[in-house]
Amino acid sequence: MAPTKKLTARARQAMETRQRIVAAAVRIFSDTTYDDVAVGDIAKAAGVAHGLLFHYFGSKRGIYLEAMRGAAEQLAAAFVFQPDLPPVEQLRQAMASHLRYLADNPGLAKRLVLGGRGADPEAWEVFEAARWRAVEATAELFGVDAGRPA
Question: How far is CA 66 from the centre of its chain?
Fold first, then answer.
């Protein structure tokens, strides 16, 4: 295995800037419909120059899709099993954590419910894939084959 390469100060700053842009985009797209979001609003919220969003993401849709991936990752991270607990309690804790995340991010929760399949198909697929990972993990926890239609 190759040794881990240390990031230069410039690369670390670029990574942090990109993460700040994605976090701002998640907040804004969670509270505002896609059509009503201006790229300048995201840049302002992230504290970066307008053109930097295009540098990192290419377009408004590019930042939107990255924001949706980031939101799906956060949502998935909130649905985690604690192996030291009995299976039913693991599920209870994971669901409670998941619902707390949605309660703390009501705009995102609303977008997920109202956006549905009519939303951007690629963005919908990001959340659908995350949902299926949670379903499969839950099925595995209880010894059920998630692939069986029954």
Answer: 8
- Per-residue pLDDT at 2: 52
Structure tokens at 126: 């990001």
Helices and strands in the chain, H and E counts: 7, 0
Instruction: Give the whole-angstrom CA distance, residue 31 versus residue 7.
Output: 34
Tell me: the pLDDT tens digits for 93-127? 999 999 998 888 888 877 776 665 446 788 888 88
The pTM of the full predicted model, rounded to 2 decimals, is 0.77
